[in-house]
Amino acid sequence: MAQCCILGAGNWATAFARVLADAGHRVTIVARRPEVARAITEQHRNPDYLSDIDLGELVTATTDPVAGLAGAEVIVLAVPAQQMRSYLRQLATLPVWRDSQAPVLSLVKGIETGTDMRMSEVIAQAGEVDLARIAVLSGPNLAGEIAERQPSLSVIAAYDPAVGRRLQQVCLTPAFRTYTIDDVVGAEIAGAAKNVIALAVGMGAGLGYGHNALASVITRGLHQLAALGEAMGGQQSTFAGLAGLGDLVATCSSPLSRNRTFGERLGRGLSVQQAVEESAGVAEGVATSLAVRDLARAHGVDMPIVEGVVAVLEGRSTPAAMVPVLMEREPKPES
């Protein structure tokens, strides 16, 4: 049994707390609001996210990161990508954080806008954490299904293979299993870029396009995000696996996906602001799309789907206008 601390109390944080508890570990969630922490500790349910899921007695919560991190043998980061840096800067002032040698597992799929840095890079820089302690979890991670103990596979990508193997054992349950890989770059680029592709697929669905069209966007989206990942040093095998194809298919196909449903709202004619107001949580692809576009341009990678999504989000195009632009591209070999 390990003592685990999850920093964040959203959908994925809540689902992963249940995974760790199912694996027999004690879990402390560090929440932002006292009423949420109190409900998790006393009722073992998160009133804001997945409220019908009983987290069990091994899961408690606090608003005090010092209390949450005290004695933690595994630290899990589950805060929004664009809030990661400021959050870590506050943590880095705490002796309990600075003195820890526990592995740090990131559940966050995004690229920081402004710096175009991957989350593990932000953790290392802003949190002053040795890269050897950092790992990322990626794959088809729809939180609701995992919380319901539906069978799910993921990957843990770690800079240090020993850390990856340790974390693999920590989150092993009958319903949740992970594979280990050493391609942190590929896993993070796939996890972030697929959210942008899911926005495009959602727009197509909102416009009423059928399975052929949506499958085409998913397939070309995979090709484009893999090209970016490889240009940045990722491994081709990562994009054919759970962190690439697996995560992309789940995110683009499921109504549980925030990015897919956000795109659908845009496809139905809602403005970006209206779609934000109707959304129940953060669609990471909205902010990440700009960073993914900038990375693609910097590495000389052609990502027309991402360019189209950014044009819609910036008000320079509409979902209906984006599709003809993609269809009018010059024919060329598929590879």
From TrEMBL:
Its EC number is 1.1.1.94. NADPH binds at residues 12, 32-33, 49, 109, 143, 258, 282, 284. One of its GO terms (biological process) is glycerol-3-phosphate biosynthetic process. GO terms for cellular component: cytosol. Signal peptide: none annotated. GO terms for molecular function: glycerol-3-phosphate dehydrogenase (NAD+) activity; glycerol-3-phosphate dehydrogenase (NADP+) activity; NAD binding. Residues 183-323 form the Glycerol-3-phosphate dehydrogenase NAD-dependent C-terminal domain. Keywords: Cytoplasm, Lipid biosynthesis, Lipid metabolism, NAD, NADP, Nucleotide-binding, Oxidoreductase, Phospholipid biosynthesis, Phospholipid metabolism. It is an enzyme of class 1 (oxidoreductase). Gene3D superfamilies: N-(1-d-carboxylethyl)-l-norvaline Dehydrogenase, domain 2, NAD(P)-binding Rossmann-like Domain. NAD(+) binds at residues 143, 258. Its main location: cytoplasm. Residues 5-161 form the Glycerol-3-phosphate dehydrogenase NAD-dependent N-terminal domain. Substrate binds at residues 109, 258-259. It catalyses: sn-glycerol 3-phosphate + NAD(+) = dihydroxyacetone phosphate + NADH + H(+); sn-glycerol 3-phosphate + NADP(+) = dihydroxyacetone phosphate + NADPH + H(+). Pfam families: NAD_Gly3P_dh_C, NAD_Gly3P_dh_N. Pathway: Membrane lipid metabolism; glycerophospholipid metabolism. It comes from the Bacteria. HAMAP family: NAD_Glyc3P_dehydrog. Belongs to the NAD-dependent glycerol-3-phosphate dehydrogenase family. Catalyzes the reduction of the glycolytic intermediate dihydroxyacetone phosphate (DHAP) to sn-glycerol 3-phosphate (G3P), the key precursor for phospholipid synthesis. This is Glycerol-3-phosphate dehydrogenase [NAD(P)+]. The lineage of its organism: Bacteria, Bacillati, Actinomycetota, Actinomycetes, Propionibacteriales.
